[in-house]
Amino acid sequence: MPYPTINTKLVTLLGNPLGHSVSPHMHNRVFKKLGIDCCYLPVEVTEDNLETVFRALTKMNVIGCNVTIPHKVGIIQYLDELDSVAQTIGAVNTICIKNGKSKGYNTDGEGFIRSLEEESQISVKGKCFFIHGCGGGSRAICMTLAFKGAAKIYISNRTFTKAEALSEEINSKIAKCSVPVQTNHEDQRNATQACDVLVNTTSVGMHPNEEELPFDASLINEKHIVADIVYNPRMTKLLKTAERKGARIVPGLGMLIYQGAAAFKLFTGVEPLVDEMSEEVHRLMA
Ligand code: ATR
């Protein structure tokens, strides 16, 4: 089949900078493997140009977009419709475009939960979570956990007022299950002892600061599942420490792969080949 042709569809990634993104490789490999006539193209765009670029894309042969830093919140004002999960999270990482109309979704939380449930063989429903960090990744994860019936979500953050605000939002919008936690040792200890899963959603431990730990190692025990959304390095200091203490671990690459898999399904209506996506990501990160 000649490629590309006038019938070839596009999916674009909107963000800035995009130099190290693995998403184009992950999606293009599966488009090719499944014989889907579509190409995933990274488009670096500044905030000043976002509206012009996005509106033009909706008038082209574009079936969808992924959105990344710094546009996950800013893009919302240009969309025709918003899925209820994305609306509650207040950020969009996936857009479907049909007949010139756009609808925004957020697959980050879903990607995290699928990775957690598959890699640790647990179900989120009824479990207690200690979430460290209050940025965009944390919002998506906490809101989705609350939607999926988590029993308790303790939120800890360097800036406590942000933890209070996020907890309050979860309790008022979704379910009364969230409690903010101060970063002193006693409060963190009490919260983590009551939890099944501990999650780092901050950038602490990310390359090049690989020797940093987001929270004290003494908080982790062998009953915990410890997840990190940092995926560079694949095995962060937090994950290595948790493994040494006998805890089960969930590395961040899973969330990256499954948020992409959920987006692929939304773009095409077709189940993606998750193993192919995973292999491509691991190959690129090696
Ligand atoms: P993202 O949207 O990618 O999740 P973000 O919005 O920049 O990223 O949020 C980063 C999170 O990591 C925040 O919770 C931030 O804490 P503050 O709210 O106090 O800023 C946290 N964070 C970043 N660097 C940190 C550090 N060195 N120590 C502790 N927390 C840190």
Which features does this protein show?
six-stranded parallel β-sheet; six-stranded mixed β-sheet; Rossmann fold; 286 residues; 12 strands; alpha/beta
Structure description:
The chain is of the alpha/beta class and 286 residues long. It has two domains: 9-106 and 255-285, Rossmann fold (3-Layer(aba) Sandwich); 109-251, Rossmann fold (3-Layer(aba) Sandwich), CATH 3.40.50.720. The chain contains ten helices and twelve strands. A six-stranded mixed β-sheet has the order 2-1-3-5-6-4. A six-stranded parallel β-sheet has the order 9-8-7-10-11-12, with helices on both faces. Helix 5 (136-147) links the parallel strand 7 and strand 8 (152-156). Helix 1 (23-34) runs antiparallel to helix 10 (274-285), helix 4 packs across helix 9 (253-268) and helix 9 (253-268) packs across helix 10 (274-285). The protein is globular, with a radius of gyration of 19 Å. The protein starts with 8 loop residues before the first strand and ends with a helix. Bound molecules: 2'-monophosphoadenosine-5'-diphosphate. 2'-monophosphoadenosine-5'-diphosphate (ATR) is lined by residues 133-138, 157-159, 162, 202-204. 2'-monophosphoadenosine-5'-diphosphate binds next to helix 5.
